[in-house]
TrEMBL record:
<keyword id="KW-0391">Immunity</keyword>
<dbReference type="GO" id="GO:0004842">
    <property type="term" value="F:ubiquitin-protein transferase activity"/>
</dbReference>
<dbReference type="GO" id="GO:0016887">
    <property type="term" value="F:ATP hydrolysis activity"/>
</dbReference>
<feature type="compositionally biased region" description="Low complexity">
    <location>
        <begin position="661"/>
        <end position="673"/>
    </location>
</feature>
<keyword id="KW-0863">Zinc-finger</keyword>
<feature type="region of interest" description="Disordered">
    <location>
        <begin position="657"/>
        <end position="687"/>
    </location>
</feature>
<dbReference type="Pfam" id="PF20173">
    <property type="entry name" value="ZnF_RZ-type"/>
</dbReference>
<dbReference type="GO" id="GO:0005737">
    <property type="term" value="C:cytoplasm"/>
</dbReference>
<keyword id="KW-0963">Cytoplasm</keyword>
<dbReference type="InterPro" id="IPR046439">
    <property type="entry name" value="ZF_RZ_dom"/>
</dbReference>
<protein>
    <recommendedName>
        <fullName>RZ-type domain-containing protein</fullName>
    </recommendedName>
</protein>
<feature type="domain" description="RZ-type">
    <location>
        <begin position="217"/>
        <end position="290"/>
    </location>
</feature>
<dbReference type="GO" id="GO:0002376">
    <property type="term" value="P:immune system process"/>
</dbReference>
<dbReference type="InterPro" id="IPR031248">
    <property type="entry name" value="RNF213"/>
</dbReference>
<keyword id="KW-0479">Metal-binding</keyword>
<dbReference type="GO" id="GO:0008270">
    <property type="term" value="F:zinc ion binding"/>
</dbReference>
<keyword id="KW-0862">Zinc</keyword>
Length: 974
């Protein structure tokens, strides 16, 4: 009105408010402490003896000797008047020096349930260190005269003695320890009143659970792997180890069991001897009964993480309380937890695991010790009102266990997902607290500050002033608060938002998706400087990244350094997250959770290019050169993250249109869930393929470029649901519909799945080093017969050694490609396909280059089944016959009988494959004096090439030695 700009007016008002704000900031700090950790955290601050808190407007001397007690949840067990009468009688008994049982005698004992007596004993005696020790004697004697059940007597005696042995490993003098004990006792009271239940047995008959399917125990690990593996066939090796076969799910090639080395797989859909396919019953399988939680961090994936962790806490706190009640119970539980080979000390073991559960629950819920305790008491109260535990001291099947878990999980998720949970906890605390319980805090704060901390009006006529409104507490919108809010939602909510579910799972990787372009850009530099077959694997280890940049023209080197810098950042970020680098092999380049490539440890200019060049490992020495898998796995992981997020958009859309229907017996229902149909293997997106040749600008437009600060947090602030009302700032929720919709139409709009084609570098010398000639024979049967005149014609046409070398390089690429691809693809190979057709149409070698290297005879008459013979011919032409290097001591002639024996055996063996194996064996092993010529040939050769697992290997003649190797080869080859 006065012509002052609105922004300036607002700034002047804020400046005035902040200038006079000397009192309000410390009050705001107290509000934050109370909202983050509950009223118990405020109490800890008040009682803290450390200096440095003088700025707080507290009279801490007034509360120095006051004791802060927990709210008493056992008030809910009966009406308030009856409970207070029992508590008063118990208190009088243990604090008076005479006539202790007068008040107890006035009670109508038979009209009061045992759990009420037990709850009052705990609240009046177990948590009070000031009771007269001699007063507990009359109480125990009086209870013993009234109670006939032996179990109840044992439990009451334990409570009356202030819960001995529980503090063996848990400090009950601290808030956390007392909270855990109180929750454990509350569960014990529920069990005590359900005498024919598994919960009762956890506390009072633990030995029964040695054969029980315990709550929260993960399903059989194999069943979980099956569920996550998609469409594969499952088999078992001769020694009982399980493995899977992808693609068509039937055996098409042989391999070695990674556990025991036995031969597995097969050929043409026929298993090798001793291998069989698992039937449906074996795949589905139940876990073993009893306690089988190897890793306490693992969740039971049949439930939400919150429900799983809550049930795990119930299991551990119940067993820990049981250990404390009687030493006999502790001995029984030791047998439940361990076995003859594994002895377990139950107190230490259960305490460690229970504390871990408690810590994870606090993290998941965002609640402090006191508030988490109250929330669990609310859950117990609701469970006792609404839930009937199954009859029987043991859970006799996983179906029964899952049904019991679902009952508890539904209530737990309902309690913790309540958007008004904090205000509900505050109201619960007020309802359960004694009149004098809060006196310590109120004495320290004073009444006015007490109400300000709780953002309540001191009197009905009072209203907060402008400064008080400015310094009111509001739960900050953040990624952490959103994750906590999401974790607290039940499966009925999280299943509706497939995009948010996937995004939160992949969120740590999403910023790195842009790195796909950086990795491919560096691949482009490498392939430009190092053409295929130009270096060997050994040379790649010696060659450094800086050497690659140095080979470029000077004007391009700075750009190459920038490309490499971005590539190295992504490499060092993602590689440590990859646990399995190749098949079931652990990542050997991680040490103590950090990347370790040797010297230097991280990817840098001094690192060898063997880690940068993408190369699939195949052959006998693949374990020595697994470094080529690093960038392949990094690209696969990043592309999978993008594709999974985009697939989630489609799934979310289908769900909201009713495209997906929930199974009647889906997890979460009371009835047992039926096994879900096996998920089909994910198909490549129906979009053009991208590779290192794709321009970076095009690739970047296709990739999801995510930044949490720019792409997610603004949406969370925009769609946060939080009241502006004074005193309601602690309640924060999010509109999940709007957040998911905004992500679809913003960050992910126009994005599509990535169909990545990774070009694998072809190293020179791999055919020999990796034994790929023998592998070629397995993948594509070879014809070794080549007439002398035909060999002479080819030799004459290949007129220079350089031409022969270049042709060998092409053949090596062919062999490596055939050996590398899956079995489902090799079955489509036709050995009669001409080499020219394969080179031009499959490998896409330019016609001009092929015409220059090949000859007329090769183009017209050489087929895929002749590759091996042609390669050996060219090898002899370039380097001489490699078998000429076999030492004389391994080339002794056979006797007539021995030669006849070899020829006879040849008719019963796979001679083509055997000859190829012997060829590679002699070149790699018998050109140096490393072996004793008198060594048994059958034993050594069978072990070296795994021939002893072939059905026909038993036909190989006995009695031959390594000295006869060359001669045996010549006989079989003829």
């Amino acid at each position: 009105d006065d012509g002052v700009p609105c922004a300036a007016l607002m700034f002047n008002n804020l400046q005035a408010l902040l200038t006079k704000a000397g009192y309000h900031p410390p009050v705001f700090a107290l509000k934050c402490i109370k909202n983050i950790g509950g009223i118990d955290s405020l109490a800890e601050v008040i009682q803290c003896s450390e200096k440095g808190l003088e700025w707080m407007p507290l009279n801490r001397d007034m509360a120095a000797k006051s004791q802060i007690s927990l709210p008493d949840p056992f008030l809910w067990l009966t009406d308030k008047a009856k409970y207070e009468a029992v508590c008063g009688a118990v208190r009088a008994c243990v604090t008076q020096s005479s006539k202790q049982t007068v008040q107890l005698d006035k009670l109508k004992f038979n009209e009061i349930s045992r759990d009420v007596f037990c709850g009052s004993i705990f609240s009046q005696i177990s948590v009070e260190s000031s009771v007269f020790a001699k007063g507990t004697g009359p109480l125990k004697k009086w209870m013993d005269s009234k109670v006939s059940d032996s179990t109840e007597k044992i439990f009451i005696d334990w409570l009356s003695c202030q819960c001995p042995r529980f503090d063996t490993c848990v400090d009950t003098k601290k808030l956390e320890g007392m909270c855990q004990l109180q929750v454990g006792v509350n569960f014990a009271l529920w069990g005590l009143m359900s005498t024919q239940s598994w919960l009762y047995a956890l506390f009072f008959a633990p030995d029964a659970h040695k054969k029980s399917f315990l709550i929260s125990v993960p399903d059989d690990e194999f069943a979980s792997v099956v569920k996550a593996s998609g469409r594969v066939g499952w088999y078992i090796c001769p020694n009982g180890h399980k493995y899977s076969v992808g693609q068509c799910t039937m055996p098409m090639q042989k391999a070695r069991c990674p556990n025991c080395g036995a031969e597995i797989g097969g050929s043409n859909h026929v298993n090798v001897r001793g291998v069989r396919r698992l039937d449906e019953g074996e795949i589905k399988g139940d876990p073993d009964p009893g306690y089988s939680i190897e890793n306490n961090e693992s969740e039971a994936i049949r439930m939400s993480p919150l429900a799983s962790r809550t049930l795990r806490f119930i299991l551990h706190i119940s067993l820990l309380v049981s250990c404390s009640i009687r030493q006999v119970f502790a001995d029984q539980i030791a047998r439940v937890l361990g076995n003859e080979d594994k002895k377990v000390e139950p107190f230490e073991f259960l305490t460690r695991r229970m504390r871990q559960d408690w810590k994870m629950l606090k993290k998941s819920t965002g609640l402090g010790d006191g508030d988490l305790t109250l929330a669990l008491h609310l859950a117990i109260r609701q469970l006792r009102l609404e839930t009937q535990l199954a009859k029987g001291l043991t859970l006799t099947s996983s179906v029964n266990r899952n049904r019991e878990e679902t009952k508890i999980a539904n209530v737990v998720e309902k309690i913790f997902s309540d958007r008004n949970l904090r205000s509900r906890l505050e109201a619960t605390r007020t309802a359960l607290q004694d009149d004098n319980t809060m006196s310590a805090i109120r004495l320290a704060t004073g009444e006015k500050l007490w109400y300000e901390i709780h953002e309540e009006q001191y009197s009905a006529k009072e209203s907060p002033d402008l400064q008080t409104l400015l310094w009111r507490f509001r739960e900050p919108v953040s990624f952490e608060s959103f994750k906590t809010f999401w974790r607290l939602q039940g499966p009925d909510v999280t299943e509706r938002y497939a995009l948010l579910r996937t995004l939160l799972r992949e969120e740590e990787k999403l910023p790195a998706i842009r790195g796909v372009a950086d990795v491919l850009a560096w691949h482009g530099v490498l392939f430009e400087v190092l053409p295929h077959m130009s270096i060997t694997r050994v040379e790649s280890i010696e060659l450094k990244n800086k050497d690659i940049i140095a080979k470029l023209p000077a004007e391009r080197q700075e750009e190459a350094r920038e490309i490499f810098s971005r590539f190295a950042a992504i490499f060092n970020l993602i590689l440590p997250t990859i646990e399995l680098l190749y098949e079931c092999n652990q990542n050997p380049f991680i040490k103590d959770g950090a990347i370790n490539l040797g010297e230097p440890a991280e990817m840098c200019l001094e690192t060898s290019v063997g880690f940068s060049l993408p190369s699939m490992v195949t052959g006998t020495d693949k374990g020595d050169f697994i470094n080529g898998m690093c960038t392949i796995r990094i690209l696969e992981i990043l592309v999978d993250s993008q594709n999974e997020v985009l697939e989630a958009i489609e799934e979310s859309g289908k769900r909201k249109k009713g495209g997906f229907k929930r199974f009647p017996n889906a997890p979460g229902a009371a009835a047992p869930a039926q096994p879900a149909p096996v998920a089909p293997e994910r198909e490549a997106p129906q979009v053009p393929a991208v590779s290192y040749r794709t321009p970076t600008s095009i690739l970047q437009n296709q990739l999801v470029v995510y930044n949490r600060e720019k792409d997610l947090l603004p949406l969370l602030r925009m769609f946060a649901e939080q009241s502006l009302k004074y005193g309601d700032g602690g309640e924060l929720s999010y509109n999940l519909d709007m957040v998911e919709s905004a992500l679809k139409n913003g960050l992910l709009a126009g994005k599509r799945g990535v169909n990545l084609c990774i070009s694998h570098y072809q190293y020179a010398g791999d055919v020999k080093r990796m034994g790929q000639l023998a592998m070629l024979e397995k993948k594509l049967p070879q014809d070794r017969n080549m007439s002398s005149s035909f060999k002479e014609t080819i030799a004459a046409e290949i007129d220079t050694q350089n031409r022969a070398l270049r042709l060998m390089q092409i053949l090596e690429i062919c062999i490596q490609f055939i050996v590398s691809i899956g079995s489902s693809s090799t079955k489509n190979f036709d050995g009669r396909t001409t080499l020219s057709s394969y080179v031009l149409n499959t490998l896409h070698i330019p016609q001009s280059e092929w015409d220059e290297i090949s000859t007329t005879t090769i183009q017209q008459q050489i087929c895929l089944r002749n590759i091996q013979a042609l390669y050996i011919l060219l090898e002899a032409q370039v380097s001489g016959n490699p078998l000429d290097d076999v030492l004389d001591e391994f080339s002794e002639n056979l006797s007539g009988d021995q030669e006849n024996m070899v020829r006879l055996a040849g008719s019963k063996m796979d001679v083509d494959y055997l000859v190829t194996c012997m060829h590679d064996f002699m070149i790699s092993q018998l050109t140096k004096p490393a072996h004793n010529p008198s060594t048994n040939l059958k034993e050594f050769l069978g072990y070296f090439n795994d021939l002893n697992f072939e059905d026909w290997w038993e036909e190989f003649p006995e009695g031959l030695e390594l000295r006869h190797t060359r001669a045996v080869y010549e006989v079989l080859h003829s």
